Request: fold
Amino acid sequence: MSRVEDTMAKAAGLTYVDEGDGPVTLFLHGVGTGSHLWRNVIAELRGERRCVAPDLPVHGGSEIREDLSLPALAEAIEEFCAELGLGEVDLVANDTGGAVAQILAVRHPERLRTLTLTNCDVHEDTPPPAFVPTVELAARGELVPLVETLLGRPDLLSVTAYGVSYEHVEDPAAVVEAYLRPILSKPGGGEAFERMLTSVDAKDMIAIEPLLTVLAMPALVVWGTGDVFFDVKWARWLRDTIPGVRKVVEIEGGRLFFPEERAAELVPHLRAFWESEGRAPLSARARG
Reply:
């Protein structure tokens, strides 16, 4: 799971992965992970699509921004897309990235051809109750020392939020190196990470509910049912709130980071959705 940020491209202050050719799919991760979360999905799709996955501010090799609120993150992604000249994208998001995606969708609907949300912050479930203790640690400035401990003791990962976000953490050291060390290795990274966690506010998500109710772009919801943070009821809330939602797919037992662990189960649903909406590349349609 190792990665080298300085070999990645950068646009609008964000490092990113850019692989393949075809219709552009944009992937957004959440707090505490990175573009690397999507590597297995991208490996499946890069033969038929251009897969672009940025690291959110603070994460990976991306720069730190002063405003780390959800609306500001959405604008950072819009700036990123504009700088790369991406045009319309099929957006796929997870965790906090799903909250960013919802705000991006209502503020810049012209940017999205389709929207796919996996387990993520929704409405008042932002942040979810099970994650509030971590946010409280960040608010007191006590989270960074704990994260620093993980750099030397990755075996302790199982007792953190990561431990319940995966079904199986086979290589804790790889998770730490891919996601946490890049944050703490940049000057002020730890403090910015704490600030980012405390900037995630339900009021920003509640405020967009009226706009979600008229969001007509085609949308897909794929939800792991074993997630201790984001209950499947929120997938149904999205279905009942966003008129563009075509389908809710439940990944039995999948946890928060199932797009990383169970990419092979997610990808067929993405392909079927895009094909049903006429967004699949010709090669994929011919393959059936």
In short: Residues 1-6, 282-288 have pLDDT under 50 and may be disordered. The chain has one domain: 6-287. The chain is about 45% helix and 15% strand. Residues 6-287 form a domain with the Rossmann fold fold (CATH 3.40.50.1820).
